[in-house]
Structure formats: C-alpha cells, structure tokens
Write a structure and sequence with these properties.
Number of helices: 24
Shape: elongated
Largest sheet: 6 strands, mixed
Strand order of the largest sheet: 11-10-9-12-15-16
Low-confidence stretches: 15-19, 415-432, 466-470
Length: about 675
Amino acid sequence: MVGQRYRYSRWDGTQKGFDFDAFDLMGQMADDLMYHGDPMAALRRLMQEGFEDRDGQHVEGLREMLRQLREERQERLENYDLGGVYDEINSDLSDLIDVERQGLDDRSAVADMQLGDPDASDADQRNAELAKETTSAKAMQLDMLPPDLAGKVRGLQNYEFESNEAQQRFEELLDQLRQQLVDQQFSSMSQAMSNPSPEDMARMKNMMAELNRMLEQRANGEEPDFEAFMEEYGDFFPTHPETLDELLEDMARQMAAMQAMLNSMTPEQRQQLMDLSNQLMEDLDLNFEASRLSQNLQQMFPDAGWQQGYDFSGFDPLGLADGSSMMRELGELDQLEQFLQSANSPQALAEVDMEQVRRLLGDQAADSMERLADLTDLMERQGLLHAKEGRLELTPKGLRRLGQQALGELFKRLSPDKLGKHDMDTTGIGHERNYSTKPYEFGDPFNLNIERTVGNAIRRQGSSEGIGGGGVNFPVRLTPDDFEIERTEKQVRSSTVLMLDLSLSMPMRDNFLPAKKVAIALHALISSQFPRDYLGVVTFSETAMELKPSELPEVSWDFVYGTNMQHGFMLSRKMLAKETGTKQIIMITDGEPTAHLNNDGTPFFSYPPTRETVNRTMAEVVRCTRAGIAINTFMLDPDSGLRGFVERLTELNKGRAFYTNTENLGDYVLVDFIEHKRSIVRGR
C-alpha cells in the first residue's frame, strides 16, 4: 500500500488558520465560569457578546445582531411612506379617468362637427345629439364619482366606458389589486392564485370555509382530518405545511401583516384601504369566509402582532404590493428580534431560520448564528462539558483546562526573577523526572537515558570512524563515557488547605473573582506539578465548609454576613491531621473575624467583632500551631482591624502575612507556594 504524500509550503498569511475549537472557547469563558460556576451562564454571555476566532475573525453575538435588526427596521421606517399605497391606486384611477374624459371629449367633438354640418342627414343629426347627451351624462357621472377609493372603484364598475383603452386599464387595475390583495393576506397562495379564474376563486372560498370548519371542530374537541384537507387543497400551499398548526400559524402571520399595514396608516388612509379591500373581497365572494378566518386566527394566535403598527416617516411612497412586502419584512424582523431576545441557550438558536437571518441581516450574521448555535455541542464533543440532570457541568477534563487557564494567566504576569522556571539547585534520588540529563559519575543512581546514551555512542563512533547517514546499518558499541543518566528532583510531600473567604464583602469589594481564580490556579499547579501533594479547600463566611477541589468552579459567595475564621481553622486542622509531610494553611480574606461557633455549634455574628469571637479564633490558631501547621495569610484591601488581627496571628503562629490586592494576589500566592516547596527541599 502506497503511503499518502503531503506537501508543505511557507505560511504567507493568506492561508486559512486552524478552526475555532472548544479550548479557545474555554479561554474566553474562563472568568464567567470562575465567577458564576455555571457553564450555561458562561455560554449565554458568550452567545450575547460574541467572540474572536483563531483567525481573528469576529463572531457576532446576539446583542450585535439585535442592534443590527433595530437599525434595519429604523432604516425602512425612515425611508418610506405608506401613503403611497393610497396614492398609487388613486393615481392609476385618475389616469384612466383622464383617458376616459379624453375619449368623451373626442366623441363630443365629432358630434359637434356633425351637428354643424349642413349636409348631414336627419339621422346623423339625431345620432350626434344623442352622442352629445351621452357624453355629457357620462362626464357628469365621472364628476360625481365618490372621493374615496372604494366608492370610486364601485362607481367605475357600474360605469360604461367610452374609451376602450380606459376600460382595459381599469380591468387590468382591478385584476392587479385583487392579486395584490390575495398576495397581501395569503402570500403563501400567491403562486397558486396567479391570475385567478372564477373557478379558482370559488375553490379558494371553499378552502377557507373548510379551514373555518376545521377550526370549529378543534374548538369542539374534535380532531380535523388535515391529510384529507391537504389532498384536496394542497396546491394552495406550496410551502407544504406538515401540520394544521403550522399552516394556521403561517396564515395568521400573513393576515397580521395586513392588519399591521392598516394600523400604520393615518385614519383616512386606513379607511380608504379597508373599504377598497372589502369591495374587492366582496367581488371575489371571499369577504365572509376571510373575515371568519381572521377572527378565528386572532383568537388562536393572539400574539401574532395584530395590534402592531409602524411609524413611517420617509418620503419614498410604497404601493400596495411594495407595502405588503415591506410589512412582511418588518414582521420577520420583529419575529426574529423576539426570538433572539428570548433565546436562553445556544441550542435554542438551532431553531432559527438561517435563510431568513441571511436574507434580513446578511451572510456574516447568519454564519455567526450557526457558530453560536454549535457552542454547547462543540464543548461537549471535546469533552469539556456534559449534561447532568438537566444542567451543564464541567467534566474533569474541563476542570483541568480551566485550572490551566487560570494558572497560565497568572504565570504570564510573573516576572522571571520572581519565579523563572522554578529550577532547584539540588538533584537527587527520586521517582519524579525533571526531564534533564547529565553524564554518569561514579555513585550516581543508574537511571540510564537510552536515547541520549545511544546518541552519544553514535556521535562518537561517527566522528572517529567516519560512519553515518545514508541508511547504512552498523553496530553501536557503548563505553562508560557514553552513559548519560536522567536527573530526578528531590521529592518531599507537603499538605495544604486553602481557606477561601466567601463572605458578602468579597463580591462587594470585587475581591471574589481574583481569589477564586487563585484557588483554581493553585489546584491546577499542585495537581499537575506536585501530584503527591495534598490540597484541601475550606470556604468560610458565617460558617465554614469543606469542599473538594473539583467543586471550586461552582463556588459562589454567601448572601450572609460573617467571617468565621475560627470554624475554618478548625476544619482545616482536622483535615491536615489525616495528612503527612509539612503542613500549611493558606488563607485569603478581606476582613477580620466577625463570627464564631457557640458551644452548641450555632453561629454567632457581630460587627465590630466581639472579644469572644477574637479569643475563640486565636484559640484555634494555637491548636494549629501546636499541630505544626503554618498559617500564611493573604489580605485583600486590609483595614486596620484585619491588620491588627493578622499581626497577632503571625506572631503566635510564626506564619507569614501578605498585604495584597486583586492585581497581585495570584503572584504572591503562587510564588509563596513555590518558595515554600523550595525551602522544604533545602531543609531536607
């Protein structure tokens, strides 16, 4: 079998980069995950705000799309005027009436010539007089046409045209208006009802009557035969709705769009168009069934936008057809806006009509929507999240990734002279490799690095014997000078309990997120670099509680007052009593002790702190000190009360105190932990 061949070229900036993946997402979600501990909340924030992919391309969030939706709607309202619906029809009627008047004038002129002709016969004279009377009567009939559209149309329908051109234009206008009216109220049927014949209109009336009957059946608790209906009238619905509800919802949207156009007009325009619509629908014998259907749909879909109206303020007039199309677009914009406002998870976006998004907002928005809809699935496919009992949770892999993210962020801020590569000056026998080697010396443990040893032998033989390359096989002879062994780090075990303050002052002073981020980073550091070490977590507010490190992402502050260090020290001491090695407590807090446990185990809170609270807390410090536990305190925004307490604590325990802020807390904690490990090694 011939192996697949690959060709490579230098990167020139034009090639497409790597696809966006879940690890990039995790990095952009990290702060939200740490602050709220809720993956779905973090995904929702990402869905709302958008993000940058690996190529630096911006993926639009829902807020940006909603802003674009509102701008699209505003642009339409500021550019167009619905008065054109009335003006266009009225103008067409005026034009054809002018043509008819010209025809009357022409016939009257011919009659005048005949009346003035002395050679004209008596019959011609009588015909000329009759023509004058007829044209005069028709001109008066035109003058007496009602000013409203419906009345004008009704009058012309009962009028006998003199001009064939005017009559043809009027009939074409009626056909056009009927078609536009059908398209406005039943756009899904417009293809099936193009140039409808009387037979088509009769079928449409029967179809609407059957729809009304099915709605009444459903109201009576019966199940309509939708399949039979579609078999009989399916040609009216080229979108092929699969259920009666789907069909009715579509028709409700269309009828609501017609109502929205009426609502958007001035009272005069609205009355003119309604009268015209009723006149034309009466002509089509559809008025009764259409009115019944509209009432039924309004009851069934009260939120379809029947009361919606728009404030058009532009100058470009919209005709009936363009107005109908504009109303459908505005309705789609409103519908999409409502959907995006109510979307509470990325999965919900999969239900949106992407082609509609593409048509209304463009390709970039549609592509962004597709990527947003895939956020949750992407995280689950790469094993960072999983669904459990109806909610999303971080997997162990996701927890590790979150810790690495926090750790990497803190390490980036450290200057090399603070931490560097954490090299130790001593090496020794141990089972932990530090991935460096040295030539073997007498007395060293024989932890031979085969790769480096054989490589030394090949290089020595190649230089001395001229052997190498070309695919030539040759024996490798090892000598003691070729031996190279692996360095190992001296390993000592330390046990740490992290005490994390969750009192209400932490979020109020914006200290919660940095403290939690440090806790997660410390867990990542210990689990990855010092797997033999023990890390326990105790959170404290009014009372204290032991947590597993894996539960850290879901930790949030307590909505209670109280900083119960006494209970926290008590739990930490009991946890460390079960461990070996050097023992320490790392406490992160922003306040002095204001709570303690009474003898019966109930919490007591007081601010300012009582002497009993301080004494009970110091008693636990003494117990920790006797157990050989060092207490290192990291104070965020310390006030005089906290400073005074911590000075007494460190004097008694011989631990250390650090005055920090949210910017350097992580630096202090990580550097101190590493230095603590170094000091243990040096001491050994």
